[in-house]
Fold:
Amino acid sequence: MTEVKDDETLDEIGGVTIIQKKRGYRFSADSILLADFPDLTGVTKAVDLGTGSGVIAILLAKRSQELSVVGIELQGTLFDLAVRNVDLSALSDRIEVVKGDLKSIKERFEAGRFDLVICNPPYYPLGKGRIGPNLERTVARHEVAVTLADIIEASEYLLRDGGRVAVVYPAGRYNEAISVMRKHNIGPMRVKEVHTKVVEVVIVEGKKGYAGDLLPEPPFCL
Structure:
């Protein structure tokens, strides 16, 4: 049985149970909405960049029994959590957690291996947003270790032709996200706004080699 340590919580969300640090990085509703967004038709191989505690990879695997997922995580504490959460969910046969830096992705994976790349990236560029004392949260929320451009460049390499990428991003950086996707031959296809009192974030799905229209979907209201 997977142990839950004194500095951790056991939380149930979206039909799965996840171990998280009490004072470290904790996933939000953004991760749950993102995992539910991409079209999984024809998708058998997915990669979750910056998998954190593994929640997105686990939710994706729960959506499709045909899907295998690789979760890549740089931070050791979160890598450990992801491995334990995959074991807790009894999905070790379909989810592999890899410790590594996506900037070195070409050294670990062959080009065009995946049908889907999914990522909940750091939201804030350096110099923006409040940086707290917790390093784990800082790396997850700020572009300290990786930028959006790094993520989309890695996605272009990892995706087969016609493969898709799904990301969630602050509404204020929406135009930047679209521009970076197009620069790397990933055409935005679908977008959904997530509302509270205002538009907080957008979830975008793009396809490698796509040159068609970007279709807005009805917003999700929290």
Remarks:
- Strands lie at 8-13, 16-21, 45-49, 68-73, 95-99, 114-119, 159-170, 186-195, 199-208, 215-221.
